[in-house]
Amino acid sequence: MIRVFIVDDHAVVRHGIMSMLKIEGDIEVVGEADSGMAAIEKVRALGPGVVLLDLKMPGMGGSLTCRAIKEVSPRTRVLILTGVGAEQEVMTALEHGADGYMLKDAPAEELLHAIRVLADGHAYLQPSITRRVLRRLSAGASPQQPLLPPQLTPRELDVLRLMATSRSNKEMAEALTVTEETVRSHIKSILGKLRQPNRMQAVLFALRLGIIELE
Fold this sequence. Notes:
Arc Repressor Mutant, subunit A; 2 domains; 10 helices; 6 strands; 14% strand
């Protein structure tokens, strides 16, 4: 059972998401909060698997709330819900440990998929936001210090491309006709070579360098 906690300052949004999730047999909404400050202690006590976090809220915004959630409940996965034109805020949330992001107006099926992807230990990058984030990252890169692509093996590149599609380890293993343990070993090696702390940062880094492309 995937235990979900919802943080949004709009009651209609929280209740709408709750109504959608409660009919799913593998998802349970364990709590809600209307602000970042209210969410932190509740998340500490409940330890949900996934937090759906509004990016722009009065007072403590989504980025700071994300960082606080990761401090009090490190195993909790955080999916940022954002509106259009929030590239800088998304980047800050990623720096604070967000595990995924998507637009608030995404279809219900995509939100359900993202929740399950995060619960399975993977990152979720909605392509439309990712492209804007990458443009922002590229604009901020220093031309005097170009980034050099690390040396990844052909199989590691295959795994990295699949990581960008939000597939589970099992699905990646099936696609590559290898074991899940082999996939986990490749991911560990990829993170080491790219010098990135998690899958989300590794995929964004690889996309920024042009090592892989979005499908």
